[in-house]
Amino acid sequence: MELKGKRILVTGGAGFIGSHAVDRLVAEGAVVTVLDNLSGGREEFLAPSRGNIMFVRGDCGDKTTLDRLLPGMDAVWHLAANPDVRSGETDPFAHYDQNIRVTYEVLEGMRRHRVRTLVFTSTSTVYGRASVLPTPEEYGPLLPISVYGACKLACEALIASFAGTFGLHAFLFRFANVVGPRSTHGVIVDFVRKLRADPERLEILGDGRQMKSYVLVEDTVAGMVHAVRHTPLPAGADGSCHPYNIGSLDGIDVVTLANLVAAEMKLTPRHVFTGGAADGGGWKGDVKVMGLAVGKLQRLGPGWTPRHGSADAVRLTARSLL
Ligand SMILES: NC(=O)c1ccc[n+]([C@@H]2O[C@H](COP(=O)([O-])OP(=O)(O)OC[C@H]3O[C@@H](n4cnc5c(N)ncnc54)[C@H](O)[C@@H]3O)[C@@H](O)[C@H]2O)c1
C-alpha cells in the first residue's frame, strides 16, 4: 500500500516512537492527524512536522473524539498505549484499560467508519520466555510473563478477529527495545538519570546479564513503512493480519549497556545489582533473554535491514539524551 496522499490518524503520535512515525509519514506525503492525550508524549516532539499535520489533544479511548476524527481516514496507526512494562507489577488495571479497552474502542470506531487499515505496535514480550532464539513470528505457544505483554497479546487477538470478521487489514509490529532520540523511558533513560544523580554508583536491576536486542527508532519506523508498502493485501472484502518482528540483528547484556552509557558520560561508576526476579530478570515479568528473527520483514524485498546494531543504537541514544 502506498502512503502518499493517504489520510492517516496516528494515535500516540506525540510520543517517542509515534513522533518519529509522524515525521516519516509526512515525508512520505501522507496527510497526518495526531491524536494524543500527552500522558506520556510531548507536543514539542511534533515540532519537525508542525505545519504539515493536525494535532488533536484527546483520548483515543473516547468514542466522541473517534467519531469526529475517523470519517474519511484511510488508515489508523495505533501507537497510544501504556508502554511501561514494569508498572504491570503494581498497576495491572492500567495496562488493561490503556491497552485492551482503548484498542477495542479504536477497532469499533474503525468498524463504524469503515476505516480498513490498522497499524498496531505490539511487543517482543508477547513471546514470554521463548525457547527459540532469535524468535520468529510463528513461534508458539505465546505465553507472556508480564501484564503488559499479556494485554498487547490480547490486543493482537482482538485485531486478528476484526480482520477475520470485518475485513480489516492489520499490521502487528512486535518490537524489540526501541531506543533513540526523544526516548522518555526505558533502561538508557533510567541509567542517565541515575548517573546524573550519583556519578559514582549505578544501580542495575536484576543481575545485569539480561541479554536483549535494542533497535534504533529510525530503523524501526523504516521497517514499519517497508512492511506496509510491500505486504500484498487480498483484493475485495476479505481482511488480513500480518505480524512482523522488528529488532536489531544482535543483542547486548545490561552490564555492557551500562558501560556504554557511562562511557558516553565519561564516568566509571561502581555497579550495584538489585538481584531482581529469581531468574535474574530485572523485576517480576522481565524476560531475561530476548532476540527477534527479522527475516520475514527482510524477505518482503530489498530496502530494509536494521542499519544499527544494539551497541550502536544504545550509544547514539545516550548521546542524544546528554
Ligand atoms: N519503546 C519501546 O521499546 C517499545 C517496545 C515495544 C512496543 N512499544 C509500543 O510502541 C508504542 C509507542 O511506545 P513509546 O515507547 O513511543 O511510548 P510513549 O509513551 O512515548 O508513546 C505513547 C504515546 O501514547 C499517548 N497515549 C497514551 N494513552 C493514550 C490515550 N488513551 N489516548 C491518546 N494518547 C495516549 C502518550 O501520551 C504517548 O505520547 C506503544 O504502543 C508501545 O507499547 C514500544
Task: Describe how the helices and strands are arranged.
Layout: E1 7-11, H1 16-27, E2 31-36, E3 53-57, H2 63-69, E4 75-78, H3 92-112, E5 117-123, H4 147-166, E6 169-175, E7 177-179, H5 187-197, E8 201-204, E9 211-212, E10 214-216, H6 217-230, E11 240-246, E12 252-253, H7 254-264, E13 270-273, H8 295-298, H9 310-321
Parallel strand pairs: 1-2, 1-4, 2-3, 4-5, 5-6, 6-11, 7-10, 8-13
Antiparallel strand pairs: 9-12
The protein binds nicotinamide-adenine-dinucleotide (NAD).
Residues 11-12, 14-18, 35-41, 59-61, 79-81, 83, 98, 102, 121, 123, 175, 177-178, 184, 186 line the site of nicotinamide-adenine-dinucleotide.
Description:
The chain is of the alpha/beta class and 322 residues long. The chain folds into two domains: 7-178 and 215-246, Rossmann fold, CATH 3.40.50; 180-213 and 249-290 and 307-321, UDP-galactose 4-epimerase, domain 1 (Alpha-Beta Complex), CATH 3.90.25.10. Helices cover 35% and strands 18% of the residues. The protein has helices spanning 16-27, 63-69, 92-112, 147-166, 187-197, 217-230, 254-264, 295-298, 310-321; strands at 7-11, 31-36, 53-57, 75-78, 117-123, 169-175, 177-179, 201-204, 211-212, 214-216, 240-246, 252-253, 270-273. It has a seven-stranded parallel beta sheet, with helices on both faces. A two-stranded parallel sheet has the order 7-10. The chain has a two-stranded parallel sheet with strand order 8-13. Helix 3 (92-112) packs parallel to helix 4 and helix 7 runs parallel beside helix 9 (310-321). It starts with 6 loop residues before the first strand and ends with a helix. The mean pLDDT is 96. It binds nicotinamide-adenine-dinucleotide. The site of nicotinamide-adenine-dinucleotide has 30 residues, from helix 1, strand 2, helix 3, strand 5 and strand 7. Nicotinamide-adenine-dinucleotide binds next to helix 1, strand 2, helix 3, strand 5 and strand 7.
